[in-house]
Amino acid sequence: MPQQSGRWLNDQASTLQGFGYVAEQIEFSIVIPARYNSSRFPGKPLAGIGGVPMVMLVHQRAIESQAVEVIIATDDERIAEVCNRAGARVCMTSADHPTGTDRIAEVAAQMRWPAGQIVVNVQGDEPLIPLSAIRQVAENLHACTEASMSTLCTPLADAQELLDPNVVKVVFDQAGLALYFSRAAIPHDRDAADDSALPAFRHLGLYAYRAGFLQRYTNMAECQLEQLEKLEQLRALWHGERIHVSVAKELPGMGVDTPADLVKVSEFIARGQS
Description:
The chain is α/β, with parallel strands linked by helices and 274 residues long. Helices cover 35% and strands 21% of the residues.
């Protein structure tokens, strides 16, 4: 990446890390969505890592983040039984939710959280999620009062990833508020031969929400951009909600999408590197 682009990345990273991030004690809740019927890995939340169901490892990470409450949201009695037996708090939710955000919105409604309550979505297949990342999205949303959601990103230096539609890119304004998310290479240099040297950021799918936004979200109609890109956060932008973005202070570890991923994560944890 050219020196100029490198300076731009460093400047933007500094701006975003500084914007709205405050080292103060705030209260936030965590919801861990856990579905049984994954197309690539059925029963994934109950898959064992060192003899412990993966969802319970995620639950332990969430507890360690100092959240005021941690709730596992599931539509499956098998997952609920295991989690209840381990002492976790469980909310049963509908099996018909089109997105994870809709599932978390149902939990917020069941819990009757006030509109200003901050809720962090920690995926049930992320046993290596850094505690600092959980707190970062919660603290940034607390500080950025005009935002309804907050999320994280990381500088993208690999040209192949920039062009990979499975890698979601994000652009944002000088205040750290998202302008657009896309599977395409954004931004695009009109005058360059290719986009390989562009300053770009990869979106990391960790979110914090205000509970009031979650209730609004369930009543928002899907938009064409969301349908085209298959990115649910575009629905929020389309309807005028603001999403705060900051560069992650610590990158999330590998998630578990497939049985092969489970083996790698299990080996990583067994080596004591988590």
